[in-house]
Write a structure and sequence with these properties.
The protein is an alpha+beta fold. It has helices at residues 2-13, 23-40, 54-61, 63-80, 104-121, 146-163; strands at residues 44-51, 86-91, 94-100, 132-139, 167-169. It contains 6 helices and 5 strands. Helix 3 (54-61) runs antiparallel to helix 4 (63-80) and helix 4 (63-80) crosses helix 5 (104-121).
Length: 183
């Protein structure tokens, strides 16, 4: 019983298939990064990756083949990022990486390297590697709230996917407008 209690946090914190962080862990990491940004001005980037064609792989080759692809993508990400970056599997075929001390430009460069690494490491003699679409945002350029940043990265990923690009950067955050009332 004591052993089970010690394993429970690991399951909640890490995806059982890939060993990467979960969305819950990622959100906590982004909250810490936001606190560092607000206190010290440290920027950070968020990248959302979507594995293209995973449904077709699952349908034609089975779920085990799809799981192998997800593990390969996770390994490619781990080999490409720094030890301070936080990779997470946030949905069935989506990953997210928190990149501390990164600007939008450096996060975009990392996104391009990730897309190439995944394509290279998943290629087989039978065909080209798996493609990923990557959406990139950075704090403070694209916002300073967890939800807005994750949504912005997700939206940028969908733009990359629909535009046939490997990487797309989110739109800059809209400045807040305050309205003063006349008295």
């Amino acid at each position: 019983m004591a052993r089970r209690g010690r394993e429970a946090p690991t399951v909640a914190e890490n995806d059982p298939l890939t060993g990467l962080a979960t969305l819950r862990s990622l959100r906590r990491g982004v909250e810490r990064a936001l606190a560092l940004h607000k206190r010290y001005g440290h920027p950070f980037g968020l990248l959302v990756l979507d594995v293209e064609g995973l449904r077709q792989i699952n349908d034609s080759q089975g779920a085990q083949a799809g799981d192998r692809v997800l593990v390969q993508v996770a390994l490619a990400a781990r080999r490409t990022i720094r030890s301070v970056d936080l990779p997470a599997r946030i949905a069935g075929d989506e990953f997210c990486i928190l990149v501390p001390d990164a600007t939008a430009e450096s996060a975009r460069t990392l996104g391009e390297r990730l897309a190439e690494a995944v394509r290279h490491e998943t290629s087989t003699p039978d065909g080209p590697g798996i493609r990923v679409a990557v959406g990139v945002v950075a704090c403070p350029e694209h916002g300073d709230e967890v939800g807005a940043l994750l949504d912005g990265a997700d939206g940028a990923m969908y733009r990359a996917k629909s535009g046939g690009e490997a990487v797309a950067v989110g739109a800059p955050a809209e400045p807040e407008i305050t309205v003063k009332r006349r008295t």
